[in-house]
Design brief:
The chain is built from 5 helices and 18 strands. The strands form 3 sheets. Strands 11, 12, 13, 14, 15, 16, 17 and 18 form an 8-stranded mixed sheet that branches. A 5-stranded antiparallel sheet has the order 4-3-2-1-10, with helices on one face. The N terminus is likely disordered. Helix 1 runs antiparallel to helix 2. The protein folds into 3 domains: 55 residues; 180 residues, no CATH class; 139 residues, no CATH class. It is globular, with a radius of gyration of 31 Å.
């Protein structure tokens, strides 16, 4: 094909570059016009064949890349259909409607090789990225928290930004690039931000070239992934039977593992506890829940409860969450109950069952974003619903 195209171009050049004599008659002029017309046709034909010769390898390469990723795609499809985790696919990543999961090939660093992106459209989260080492697919991130405790973003300059929680009070930001040779990640920098007691943020660690200024610049380069050509991992209509069967056979489809609840939860801006802001910390290994409160006068208060975490049949609670009005309560399906069985000490206001939580039941669950949340009964006069039938939501900090 290349030789044929080259010959066509050579013929075009010879025909187009031959000078026409002004002393020759109209017959020769007509002949020259015929030659020029033929040359123009040959140019178009040659250009078309050149274009085809360029596009064919691209299509062939895409097909070969997709074939190399097929094992990974098959693993994801099976995990979504059965609801069972697999190596490299965490259980929380597949506790979703299979129809919201999709994939696409995208050349992140423009090196001529496409990476495989796994994406959750409902949560608008990039769940995993795979690259090819030879013809073998490899996951770039070994982090099961991606999708609920941490998030990935692709940048216009080919870099990858990861933001996540490094603990109850820490926010960790990392910047990566994809090595052209090994198709593996190289870390460019890391920054750790700590939430202080006054709710301010402080940079407590900084490595590489990542700084607050670079972080802000990076956020301005984030690619809108919704514009990419994603394809469903499971076609519409497929996987629904398996999903329904799994939900029907599972006793607790909305359950949260007790060990996952370890951490601190905070109510959003405007949620007051006895006139001050509040947090709760859950220690599943100690069967302990602690309320931490800062009153408006600056006093620190603490209440401790012995708890028991158990799974219960599915029920629906109404909860008030940040950003909603009291006329727009969220209805949440739950399975995980946290029983406050004994008041162990601290703020005596929480010891009175008539006004607080001793003997009450809280509920834990994941929001659509994957974020953990805990709702407790509402006893506060700030709301029109001072009743244990309505709950107030704390979210993972």
């Amino acid at each position: 094909m290349k030789k044929y195209v080259f010959s066509l171009l050579a013929l075009v050049c010879l025909g187009a570059c031959r000078p026409a004599s002004t002393e020759e008659g109209t017959g020769q002029a007509s002949q020259a016009e015929t030659v020029n017309s033929e040359s123009s046709s040959l140019v178009k034909e040659a250009s078309s064949q050149l274009s085809e010769s360029k596009e064919a390898p691209k299509a062939s390469q895409k097909a070969a890349e997709l074939e190399s990723y097929e094992t990974v795609l098959a693993d994801w499809r099976q995990a979504l259909e059965t609801g069972e985790a697999k190596p490299g696919i965490d259980s929380h990543q597949i506790q979703v409607d299979p129809q919201v999961m999709s994939y696409t090939l995208y050349d992140i660093n423009q090196d001529g090789r496409s990476e495989l992106l796994i994406y959750n459209h409902d949560q608008e989260n990039l769940i995993q990225i795979y690259s090819l080492a030879g013809d073998q697919a490899q996951a770039l991130f070994d982090d099961p928290s991606i999708g609920y405790r941490s998030q990935l973003s692709l940048l216009q300059n080919g870099e990858i930004l990861q933001e996540g929680s490094g603990g109850a009070m820490d926010h960790v930001i990392q910047l990566f690039t994809l090595d052209d040779q090994s198709s593996q990640l190289d870390e460019l920098g890391e920054m750790r931000i700590k939430k202080m007691e006054d709710d301010s943020d402080k940079v407590v660690a900084q490595e590489g070239r990542l700084s607050p200024e670079v972080y802000e610049q990076s956020k301005g380069q984030i690619i809108d992934l919704s514009r990419l050509d994603f394809k469903p991992l499971i076609a519409s209509g497929q996987g629904q039977e398996a999903q329904e069967e799994t939900s029907g056979s599972a006793d607790y489809p909305y359950a949260v593992d007790a060990e996952d609840l370890a951490g601190t939860y905070i109510r959003g801006n405007g949620f007051l506890i006895n006139g001050g802001m509040g947090r709760m910390t859950i220690y599943p290994d100690q069967n302990l829940l602690v309320f931490h409160q800062t009153a408006v006068d600056g006093r620190k208060q603490e209440s401790r409860f012995r708890i028991r975490i158990d799974q219960v049949p599915t029920q629906t609670i109404q909860t008030f969450r940040e950003g909603q009005s009291w006329d727009d309560l969220a209805e949440i399906k739950v399975n995980t109950a946290i029983y406050l069985e004994e008041f162990l000490g601290g703020d005596e206001a929480h010891a009175d069952k008539e006004t607080s939580y001793n003997g009450d039941t809280f509920y834990a669950y994941r929001r659509k974003t994957g974020q953990l949340a805990v709702s407790n009964p509402n006893y506060y006069v700030e709301s029109p619903y001072k009743t244990s039938d309505i709950y107030l939501e704390y979210t993972e900090e």
